[in-house]
Bidirectional sugar transporter SWEET
Amino acid sequence: MFEFGHGLRPTFINIWKAKSVEEYKPDPYVATILNCAMWVFYGLPIVHPDSLLVITINGTGFVIEVIYVTIFLLYSDWPKRRKIIIALFVEFLFLAIVVFVTLTFLHGTKQRSMLIGILCIIFNIVMYTAPLTVMRKVITTKSVKYMPFFLSLANFANGVNWFIYALLPLDPYILIPNGLGTLSGLVQLILYATYYRTTKWDEDTSDVKPSEVQLSGSARNT
């Protein structure tokens, strides 16, 4: 499910102060918009009854991601802005097709939950594997400078909470991606503990691009 990533704020503060997105990329945030929208649809009574928490958390996440992407649109040049607009249009078209197919050809919440649940699992796995780029950098540079501890901790806690939620009652569509999310967060914490002492906090790691750092800080859905 969506988590409130406090590690995101410095990125957008920097963009606002510089009045430019510089080398930061909006890809994770644009992708999370679709991810949150899919989970909101999954939680609707016509798809998966008794999922109010899924709707409220991801609905809030959707609004926050829209704000983030709007900031990117405001401070991007036209080529980047055009790519964002095209991506959002494709996402909207995809969501519209999924909603149409689900409500038109699938009857009953069991069939609808299965289709949307599988799609949500796919999107969530993509979200949870996004930090792999940064984790690879941590290992190669023996530095956790660009992998914030509290964000990794929030990642782990988010996965654990939703994993437990999925057990009461059993919901495999939430359970599977959050099991992977818990594992991802745990690996990040282990890396942090392993390379904390070798991190040179005042040294500029020029080979780590802002776009890679940003991936680890993206807000994620279950």
Notes: The longest helix spans residues 78-105. Confidence is low (pLDDT under 50) at residues 3-8, 205-219. Residues 6-216 form one domain.
